[in-house]
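Bench log, entry 3. Co-assembly request; chain sequences pasted below exactly as received.
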Amino acid sequence: MGHDGGDVRALNAEGDDPVAALRASINPSISFTVANGALRRLTKLRQGGAKSATRTRIAVLGGSTTTQLAKFLDLFLFAGNIDAEIYEAPYGLIRQEVLDPTSELYSFAPQFIFIASGRRDIGAPSPAASQEEVAAAIDATASEWESIWQTAYERLGCQIIQNNFEAPPWRTFGHLELNHHAAEGAFIDGVNRELRRRAPRWVSIHDLDALTAAVGRWNWGDDRFFHLAKLPCAPEHLPLYAHSVASLVVARLGRSRKCLVLDLDNTLWGGVIGDDGLAGIVIGQGDAVGEAYVAFQKYAKALAERGVILAVCSKNEDANAREVFEKHPDMVLRLPDISCFVANWEDKAANIRRIAQELNIGLDSLVFVDDNPAEREIVRRLVPEVAVPEIPLDPADYVRAVEAHRYFEPAAISAEDFQRTDMYRANAERRQIASSVTDIHEFLRSLEMRAAIGPIGDVELDRSVQLIGKSNQFNLTTRRHSAADIQRMLESKTWETRFVKLVDKFGDNGLISVLLAEERGDALFIDTWLMSCRVLKRGVEQCLLNHVAETARARGLKRVTGEYLPTAKNVLVKDHYANLGFTQTGGSDDGATTWELDVGADWRPIPHHITEETP
Amino acid sequence: MSQLLADLNDVLRDVFGDPDIALTETSTAEDVDGWDSLAHLNIIIALEGRFKVRFSTAEISMLKEEGQNIGSLVKLIASKRGDLA
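Structure output for the full assembly:
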């Protein structure tokens, strides 16, 4: 009997890996009873030493009973290869746990706090309240949660997942529920909007309101269980609720999936291209099934446009498969949308390994969608790291089948990375203008730039530290200060910290520059000055220097001093201080130079085309 | 009625993950390890799913009280389903 490697692996995955089997069996649509059964299996497997790739610590603070929710959260995180140690605060003590520095929350020291609040945790204003009273109530409610986040973050430096508030299923103001300021629905809507707006980078808003709407608001709550046991929702929805929260934790831990691998025949179109030919496959308007495939392609395209990588893995002649993307008029997906295209007759497990290799991402970043249950099974067995959702028979159900798993949940922390596509597109547009405008001043004026310059606060801290850690080219000293260093500077009276955010008529460039300076004698000494190269030659340096000069003068100082420390990568800023009108005061053999600028009575700001705003 | 009792035992074995559960009409919650107030709710949910019935808030509360046994639960389900006693 011959045994090749594939057979042996298949045998192991099937027979000897109950952990992989349990992980694969956990999905967001499992019932309450099945989820409890899975929990019992998990307990047994853990007693046998089962472990996940990552560990984390989560504190669950609930306005309602969270025991079952916390257990299911653990279950779904385990499915995502994460072992969570969970501390469950006593029911109804969200505020006390956070405000009391001696509470168990602080001795537990979690990496995440999940605030499992609900509409019963906020008081709605009276239906007779005036517009001003409701606005004040919205502000007060949002401010209270905001201060809870701040307190927890200051003491723990942890990430926070905060439920927003679910609108009740009844509408006492009828169809005017959202129009009338004092309706409960309008109040909750206002609070949710404020929470979204105020949430800093380290707070993820868990959209409980959207979840209840997706389930159906009457179905979501089973008030018998709230009255009896203060359960936050009908028990049958607790697995879905836990999965939804778990997907945010997975995203924050950087374990969301990155790439959607698609089969072709009967997955992206109906029929088999090799048999039916270009005119015979089912795709496009005018045919109900063809429209269902178009809808699925549109969904995949939308994912791709926000940064999910698409790949194709199909058993076909390569030329036949590509021809559909090139020539069929009703295709939504085209070849440029596909980052890795593999069509051949080899087995799909091997091809999927090849796709991961070519894209240089882990197998655990992949989701494989194939209508053929045999192909799904072989990939599950041979490449268990890949997520392989069950695919229903009807293509009209494909979008829901993939979306339900929330494989591609983005982390709020990468919001900036996330706009990258937009930023690159906007940069291309800026370049176009630059070529049509001959005068540089006219060009810069036409950008309508506005810079917000201010001291680094909690909200700017993560991004500032990220820039300090990675900027190489426009970086005068390349000092890699940590978050704790910045924190110390913020508390010190001799240090000034500044960030710059730049907006122009094409969009928001985000936080693009950081400057750290310390008072030394009669001078303000620039310890760190760095900037993102994508805003080079826009006048940001001049604008920031003017600001720093004013800061020095406000402190009663006479000079601004700085230095250039050469590295292999920062020759770009060798003449930075000379260009800004500084005088050289020293230099050493290794190329380091020191500079000073007189900011006494004769100092005048340098002209530029940016309007400075206070953040 | 005895079929109902058998089905009920089936549900309890499922909820507690214990294949050895075999209760009679005179058994009470105390006879089952882990039948606390949370488990009680889990049982109610499982019973509702299995027998396609709905318990009222008052009934769920009442079933936990002193003096109730498996027999009272069987009777309640039977009356909800319209079984002949």
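Residues 8 and 74 of chain B are 8 Å apart (CA to CA). Helices of chain B lie at 2-16, 37-51, 57-62, 70-81.
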